Amino acid sequence: MPYSSTPRAPRAAARSRARTAVGLAAAATAVTLALPAVASAQLGSLGAGSVDTGSVPPGLLFPPTPGIGAGPDVEIVEGPAVETAVVMNGLNIPWDVVRAPDGTLLTGERGGRMLVQRPGEEQRTVSIDLPGLFRQSESGLMGMAVDEGFEQNREIHVCWSRSAGGERDNRITTFTVDENWTTMTKARDILIGIPLGAEGIHSGCRLLAAPDGSIYVGTGDTYNATGPQSTDSLAGKTLHINPDGTPATGDSVINTIGHRNVQGLAIQPGTGNLYSAEHGPDVDDEVNLLQSGGNYGWNPNVAGQYNQNVPMTDTEEFPDAIEAVWSSGAPTLAPADIEFLGPEWGEWEGALAMANLKTQKLVLLRLGEDGRSVVDGSVLLEGEFGRLRSLTPEPDGSLLVTTSDADNRDQVFRVSPADA
């Protein structure tokens, strides 16, 4: 039953089990760095063991650990040979990249700058107005999706953080772009009121345009205790909307609840199954197979306070909570976007590609026939491009990847199977 109201089991045992795991992980990665003032301000009241490392610049905290595979139960095997090519560069945290039907590439930096590269041309900026853009920690200009009807309406959906006039939220706004790709003009806000945390933490904001024209949205819990399990909040959810913001299914835009910070969404070819990737606290990043109405078991509400020392999927408190398809265990990898590989990848066709921030690698996971298990995996590009955030498929089977290294060092690069 969606959003089960099954009576809750006692929390003590679950919290104890989680604290033991978290304590072991924290002990193994103890940090005694003196952080720069700007970093300390961004981290706010969070302790080192609670930092969502997707927002931490490389070399500052939790440096990548070479050789970490894809979780404790995944056998790492030799992966496909790949080729890479830089497509755009000189960027500063390009959170997402999208491809228009004519091959034009568009990426937006978290600070609000939008850049375009048309086929055969150099990259350049595109004018866009985002009044009140809140750029802090894990918030700012983030996910984008090209509307399925783009060739007729030239619409692009953008998820961004706004703080203005006493109002704060993450919102999805639809823009139209002119034929020369010089200006993006606001058409309408299609979904407002997605919570935005005071420190900009856990904003989610991944968008995925489905073949039927609807849009899936991944949100974060905004470091709020009650949001993930409350159906009155859009925090800690996946959402499913039409391009006008109305519910795509049923009478609610909420698709699933009980998430911590959804960073990736992908639809599996052939099955239509929807998968998400999200950050764990100190342990247990997850890939989930999403079932409409499902509860994925994240509940940091302990006596009314936000407490991360709880299981990512708490099946003791929520017996109907849906277990993850994949979990990193300890340490975490800090997964970002995910995408399924096409036939051009040979024996790796159908594998789930997962970009990773902290561990700076592309992980491929081959799923079992049930879609709920992992057969084996491979690790590619470890440390070669820095922190990897977004994955976007191209018609030839290659993937566009954005990096997240800051200080104008970022790129959009293409990774392709070498023998394609």
TrEMBL record:
Limits of the Glucose/Sorbosone dehydrogenase domain: 91-408
Q: Matching InterPro entries, A to Z?
A: 6-blade_b-propeller_TolB-like (IPR011042), Glc/Sorbosone_DH (IPR012938), Quinoprot_gluc/sorb_DH_b-prop (IPR011041)
List the SUPFAM superfamilies hit by this protein, alphabetically.
Soluble quinoprotein glucose dehydrogenase
Q: Does the keyword Cell division apply?
A: no
Domain of life from the UniProt record: Bacteria
- What is the residue range of the signal peptide feature? 1-39
Could you confirm whether the keyword Nuclease appears in this record?
Answer: no
Keywords of the record: Signal
The family database entries (Pfam families) matched by this protein are listed as: GSDH (PF07995)
Q: What is this protein called?
A: PQQ-dependent sugar dehydrogenase
List the source organism: Dietzia maris
